[in-house]
Design a protein that fits this description.
Layout (H helix, E strand, L loop, with lengths): L1 E4 L4 E5 L3 E7 L5 E8 L6 H12 L32 E4 L9 E10 L15 E9 L4 E9 L5 E10 L5 E13 L4 E7 L7 E6 L3 E6 L12 E6 L9 E7 L4 E7 L5 E7 L6 E3 L4 E3 L2 E7 L2 H17 L12 E3 L1 H4 L5 H11 L6 E4 L27 H11 L3 E6 L3 E2 L4 H5 L19 E2 L5 H17 L2 E6 L21 H19 L4 E4 L9 H6 L2 E3 L8 H10 L7 E6 L12 H8 L3 E5 L7 H23 L1 E6 L6 E7 L5 E8 L10 E2 L9 E4 L5 E3 H6 L2 E2 L8 E8 L2
Parallel strand pairs: 21-22, 21-30, 22-23, 23-26, 26-27, 27-28, 28-29, 29-30
Antiparallel strand pairs: 1-2, 2-3, 3-4, 5-10, 6-7, 7-8, 8-9, 9-19, 9-20, 10-17, 10-18, 11-12, 11-14, 13-16, 14-15, 15-20, 16-17, 24-25, 31-32, 32-33, 33-38, 34-37, 35-36, 35-38
Helix pairs in contact: 4-5, 7-8, 11-12
The chain binds alpha-D-galactopyranose (GLA).
Amino acid sequence: MILYDKQNRAFVLGGKNYSYIMHVNDCGFLQNLHYGSKTEIGDLGYLISHIGSKYAPVKSDLNMDCLFDVMPSECGSYGRGDFREPTVVIERADGASMSRLRYASHKITNGVYNIPGLPHARSGGQTLEITLKDDFSPVEVVLKYTVWDEYDVLSRATEIRNAGKESVKLNKAFSFCAELPEADYKMLRLHGSWAMERMPEWNSVAHGVARIQSLRGASSHQMNPLTVLFDGEPSERTGECYGFMLVYSGSFAITAEKTYFGYTRVQGGINDIGFRWELGGGESFYTPQALLCYSEQGMGELSRAYSDFLRERIIDPTFVKKRRPIVINNWEATYFDFDTEKLKSIFDAAAPLGIDTFVLDDGWFGKRDGDTSGLGDWFVNEKKLKGGLKAVAEHCGKRGLKLGLWFEPEMISEDSDLYRAHPDWAVGKLGQEPVRSRNQLALDFTRKDVVDYIFGVMSDVIKNNGISYVKWDMNRPVTEFYSNTLSAERQGEFAHRYILGVYSLAERLTAAFPDLFMEGCAGGGGRFDAGMLYYFPQFWTSDDTDAFQRALIQWGTSVVYPVSAMSCHVSVCPNHQTGRTTPLSTRGNIASLGAFGYELDLTKLSDEEKRDIKRQILDYKRIDALVLNGDLYRLIDPFGDKWFAEMIVSKDKTEAYVVGERLRGVPNDITRRIKLDGLDPDRNYTVEESGVTASGKSLMRIGLVLPSLADYESFAWHLKAVK
Ligand code: GLA
C-alpha cells in the first residue's frame, strides 16, 4: 500500500511486514525516515519531527547544502555537500557534474513499472514514481518504488531523463539508495569461484565503504549480485535484516557506506567502473531493478520472502510451478566423445528408469571435439551424429524422451567458420591480441546484427529438431569492454549494452518458443541471479556435484534463491571435480533439494544402481511439488557443523521433507537432536520412515534424534500431518 500524506509531505509505503517512509523536507530534498518494522500512520509526525529536525535542513535556506552529508537521502547526488558516494553522476556538456536533485512531482499507479529491455517484476503491486529535478541542468531523476501487500519485497529502479536538448553523460547510474539507521551491521557476501559458488561470508560493516562487485561482464561465480545487512549476529530464526538484490546479470556493484553519523547508505546497480553513457536530449536511461527485502525474523524468513517473490513475480509463470523435466545430461558421461550409437545406448538405459528428458551437451555442432574450436557454428556435426539431430530426436522420441540441447550463444572460437567470416564480431579491438579464456572469445552482443544472427541459427535448430529444452551456457568472463562498432564516446556503454544484448536474445527466444524450457548455466553457477531467472526457471547450480561440496553450495544458494531454481544432478563417483566417493543415496538426497536429474553414464550402471535410481526418481516425484511450492527451512549449517540439514514444508503445513547428511564423523559421538521448523505446532505429524508421531510443537521444540551415520551418509524423512 502506498499513501501520500499531504500535510507532512510524506510517502508511506507498506508491504506485508515492513514500512518504508520518506519525506520531502523544507528544502525539497527527499529523505528517508524509516525502513524496517511496520509502523502505524500515527507515528509519522514523531518520525518527521525527530529525523527531520535533527538530520536535515529545516529552513528553506539552501546555504545549508552541506547538511546533505548527514541526511538519509533517497538519491545521493554529487558535488554539492553530500560527501558520501553518489547514486547518480551526471556530467553536463560544459563538463560540470555537480547536481542538486529536489522533489518536483510524484505519481501513484496500480501495477508494476516496465523497464525497457531489462528483466523486472512481472505483475501486481502499486507503484510510486517520484521525480526529482536538478537545479542546474534539465535532467530529471525518477525514483521508482513498487510495493506488494503480500510480500516483504520492495522493488526499486531509477530512470534518468534528459529533458534538455544537449547530450549529457551518465558516469554513474545506480538503481537504488537506501539508508539504514545506526546499528552494528554484519554484511553478507556470497562469494566463490568455479565449482565453489555462493559461499556465505559475513563481515562487520566498518566506517567507510564496503564494496562488492563484478567486472566480468557477468554477475559471476566470484560475487553474487546481492548483499544482506544484519543488525547484530546473523541468525536463521531471529533478528532484523535487510536484503539488497539486483535483477541484473552484468558487471554490478553494491556498496555499504557507514558514515561518521552512524547511518549506513546501501546502494547498487550497474558497475560504475568504466561506465559512461551518453544520454541524448529527450532520452531516458533505465537502470536495472533492485529487490529490497526486510525480515524481522532472521535469515530464514528473508530467504522465504525472496523465494516466494522470485517464484511468483520474476520467474516465468508458464514453467515456475510446473513439474520439471527429470533430465539425463551426457556431459560427464561422454564429454566430447560421443556418436549416435552411444547416445542411443544412453536413451535405452534412461527410459526404463523414469527419466523423461535427454539433454545433449557440448560437442554436437561444428568441429567440436574439444574446447579449442567450433563455438559459433551452430550446425550439427553429421560426422559425429549420423542422420543429424533429426535422427537423435527420433531415437529419443522412440524411447519416450524429450530432447534438450546445449548452446553457448554468446561465444565464438577463433577456429570456427563464424570467426573466419566475421572476426570483427568478437569482443575486443580488431588487430589487438585478444584475451582468451577456455580457448574462446565472447561475441559482441552489443551488436544487433550479431544477436540477430545467433537468434536465427538457434531458432532453426530448435524448430527443425523438436527441441523442448535448451541449456544456455556461458563459459568465460567478458574482458575487453570494446566494440568495433561503437563510437569512441560510447565505448563506456559496452558492458551494459552487452548484457542488454543477452537479455534481448533470451527475450526473443522465449517469445518465439513459448513452450521451450530454458536452463541457464555459466561454467556451472557463474551467472545465477534474478535477472537470469526471469528467462530461465532453473539454473545449473554448479559443475561441482559432489554430495559434500554440493550441500554447501546449495545451502549458500538457498540464502536468497528458491530451491526450485537450482538444477541439481546426481553424478558418478569418484566425483569428477573433487575425487570424493559418496553413497548414491546421498547424491540423490542432496539433488532432491532442487530440480532433479542425472549426469553420468547410465550404460555403466550395475543392476542394483539401476534399481536405486528408479526408486530415487519415484521418490522425487513424491516431493517435487514441495520443491516447487514449499517453504525452505535451513536446520543445520554445514559450514559450522558436522551435519547438513534442511527441510521443505508445504504452504498448508500438511507435509514436510527433511534431508540430512553427516559430514564429518567423530567416534563415540553424543546423541544429537535436530529441531524441525515451519510445522504447525498444533498438529500431529507422522514421520513415514520411523513411524514416529508427534506434535509439530514437540518436533520443533524438542526435536528428533539424528540417526547414527558414517561420513557422507544421509537420511530423507517424509512427514505427513495426521488427519
Ligand atoms: C560448462 C558447464 C558444464 C558443461 C560444459 C560443456 O562447464 O557448466 O555443465 O555444459 O560447460 O563444455
